[in-house]
Design a protein that fits this description.
Helix content is 26%, strand content 37%. The protein has 3 helices and 9 strands. The model has no long low-confidence stretch (mean pLDDT 92). The chain has 2 domains: 68 residues; 102 residues, Nucleotide cyclase, GGDEF domain (Alpha-Beta Plaits, 2-Layer Sandwich), CATH 3.30.70.1230. By secondary structure, the protein is an alpha+beta fold.
Length: 189
Amino acid sequence: MAIVRTYRLDEKNVLHFREAWFQQFEDEELGQFVINHGSVGHMSQTSDVQDVDNDRADELFAGFMEACAEAGYKEIEAEDQSWVIVQYALKSANGTERDHYLEKKAKEALTGHLAWRGLGTVESSDFGNRKLNIRVLSPAPKLAVAAIKTCIREAKLDFTKMSIGVAPYAEVNKLKMAHPMPSKPMSID
């Protein structure tokens, strides 16, 4: 499933997003073309076109990209975004079965919560040195931090053991704690 995600700042300095993807279900020739859009940080609106083949999907993607360009939307390169690291302190060096379950559930919850609000994508996760790190790439890190706190609370995923840090894309070693406050040193190592 290919996805195209675009953004633009409006005259009030509010970031908006539009994204589109073509989704086919297993063993089916036809799929659906989906457009999702809204203000970054708020639940988006979605529309779709059903019974689309690959050729029609290509035409719809081209039309989508043309409409985005006309409205001032463009893709944001990864290098122009920030890392938001969701970190859990662990009792063992490499995590227990419970910690691996937490990783799976947190990634699932964050993937949906952040994507439907244009706040970024869950890129990876790892265990190491008594920590679980979940890496989110976001165009709006401050809004993403607030959304992550809400998401983790609502999903009942051990909010009290979680820390969140933010770093520029190319300088993850400059991770600054954004939650909890007051800020303390934070590292993914």
